[in-house]
Amino acid sequence: MTALERWVHGTFTHDGITHETWRQGTGPGVVVIHEIPGMTPEVIAFGQEIVDHGFTVVMPQLFGEPGRPMSAGYTVKSLVRGCVSKEFTALALRRTAPVTRWLAALASDLHGSVGGPGVGAVGMCFTGGFALAMMVDDAVVAPVLAQPSAPFPFTPARSRDLGLSPADHETVVARVNAGCPVLGLRFEGDPAVGRRFQVLHDELGENFRAVEFPGRKHSTLTLHRQERGVRAVLDFLDERLR
């Protein structure tokens, strides 16, 4: 049995943009957004764990090849795609990636099909901040930011940037202040995250819940999986979606 054999393959289109999706499970909805280089076996295994915990999971395929293992060449190819595609904003400051509108629409569609108080969104690495941007849609009530790394922190300003336009930033902060918490995970020494966790603490206050691990590793939920982090995500989804 392949890793995706139990998943239902489909597509979702919004505003003229179409991406493949993979869906499985019953219960409240969660959108799991893969990291660079794509939907690796580790990402699929994490999605399966959320399904087995009692959720309906949709995994969109934004780039890469479903099920392909991570490698150096594959990672570089996906990084290039992230830098040149108009759907992403790997370098821009104070700008929301256009693909997050598609993701928010996907979350809203999932919520419409499963009901409940809302849906969760888990972003990782390059897509980590996308879960925050998806909060412009009220359907997203459980955003999880795993090592948010875009825009790439090449400068101090980029290392602090949350990947939100001024208008979206205002909307997100208002939703958080109204009682919607945000969960973040990272390794304390991960340079890819930059200074974003401090900015999130400063701007979101106690509604930003940080789960941090010692060391300079990166992928908290997949390649460098931390059991305490996975447990924190499942507990957060239970709290917000049950």
From TrEMBL:
It comes from the Bacteria. GO terms for molecular function: hydrolase activity. Residues 26-219 form the Dienelactone hydrolase domain. It holds the Pfam family DLH. Gene3D superfamilies: alpha/beta hydrolase. Keywords: Hydrolase. This is Dienelactone hydrolase. The lineage of its organism: Bacteria, Bacillati, Actinomycetota, Actinomycetes, Propionibacteriales.
